[in-house]
Each structure stands twice: as C-alpha cells, then as structure tokens.
Amino acid sequence: MFQPEVMLLLVILAVLGTPAFSANDYHGTTTGTPFCTSMPEGKNLTAVRMYVRNSVIMGIQVEHDGNQDVVNGYAEGTPVVLTLSDDEHVLWVFGTYRTYIQQIVLYTSRPRDQYFGSLKGPNEFSDYPQNADHVLKGFCGFYVRGGLRAIKFVWGSASGTCTE
Ligand SMILES: *[C@@H]1O[C@H](CO)[C@@H](O)[C@H](O)[C@H]1NC(C)=O
Who's near 18: CB < 8 A, 6+ residues apart? Predict the structure, then answer.
C-alpha cells in the first residue's frame, strides 16, 4: 500500500538514480582531432595498447584476432598492453583526467584489471554497457599534440555487429 509521499520519494530516487552520463558521452574535453578505433564486424578485441608519457595517455591502438589497427594519437612514451584471451572481454572502465586523459583502467571478465597511466587527474569517470550482455568494442576520442583530450567507450554484443 503506497502513500503519495512514498510514491513521490520513489520517483525522486528514480530520477537521482539515473547516471549523470550516458553510454555515448565523452569523458574529458572534445577538442582536437577526432578518432575511433576499428570495430570490425564479428570480431572481438584481442589486445589494447596505450602509450603513456608523463602520466598522459598519448595514443591508443587496438588489435582484433592479432591484427593491429593504427595508433590513434601518438606512439610516444611507454607502451602498456592488455592482451585478452579468447573468451575474455572488458566489462567496465574507470579513468581520470585533468587537461588530458591521465589514467584508464580496464576491468575484464576474467576478472582482472589493467592500469594505463597513473591516478593523477582530479576528474574521475567510470563507464559500463547499458546492456549487461554487452562488452567493450573499441574507443573513440579526441587528441592534440600533448595527448588525448577526451575518450568515449563503445559497447556492443560480443560477436555481433550491434553497438550502443
Ligand atoms: C567473441 O566472444 C564471444 C563471447 O565470449 C565468443 O562466443 C566468440 O566465439 C568470440 N569470437 C571470436 C571470433 O573469437
């Protein structure tokens, strides 16, 4: 038996519970050269490589079935690699930014995590698929000469073509 006050409270909680970001949101500042990594149909991510210089993510490169995509941004600094096994997928992410994207953490289904960069930026974000069956398909973002300014995570079905 719901009192009107209880109903109102539930409505307020439902509104507050809505995440402040959507799956299509960029984290950081959408300035500079835009990019999206390749996301070939029916292929899973098999590796993610990020180049980190002075606590800034400089570039991102993905791999599908051992085929390397181009480096988006700059291959400068220290390469850090997450190699995924056949049935392993990235299910959620965490990161920080100040002027540049400074840290990205990928959490996989194994479960395990891989840190790219260090915890420096004051602005934190996390992201995950809207559909619980979906996994990380790739990245979009913006970079300038100093590094990545913004990042967006693209989620979709593991072997299908559907993305969010
Ligand atoms: C992609 O991942 C799904 C789910 O783990 C798996 O069923 C499928 O076989 C994988 N595709 C390839 C090409 O490895």
Answer: none
**pLDDT tens column, 3-52:** 555 444 444 444 444 444 444 589 999 999 999 999 998 899 999 999 99
Beta strands in the chain (DSSP E): 27-28, 33-36, 45-53, 56-64, 67-68, 72-73, 78-83, 90-97, 101-108, 112-117, 123-127, 135-144, 147-156
Ligand 1, atom 13: nearest CA belongs to which residue?
A: 43
Is the domain 39-157 a CATH 2.100.10.30 member?
yes
For residue 71, the model assigns a pLDDT of 98
Q: How far, in Å, is the centroid of ligand 1 from the Cα of 160?
A: 9
pTM of the prediction? 0.84
How far is Cα of residue 40 from the mean position of the Cα atoms in its chain?
17
User: CA 110 to CA 102: how far, in whole Å?
Assistant: 25
Enumerate residues lining ligand 1, CB below 6 A.
43-44, 86-87, 158-159
Residue nearest to atom 2 of ligand 1 (CA): 158
Distance 122 CA to ligand 1 centre (A): 36
Query: Which of 41, 44, 85 gets mutated to test ligand 1 (max ligand atoms within 8 A of its CB)?
Result: 44
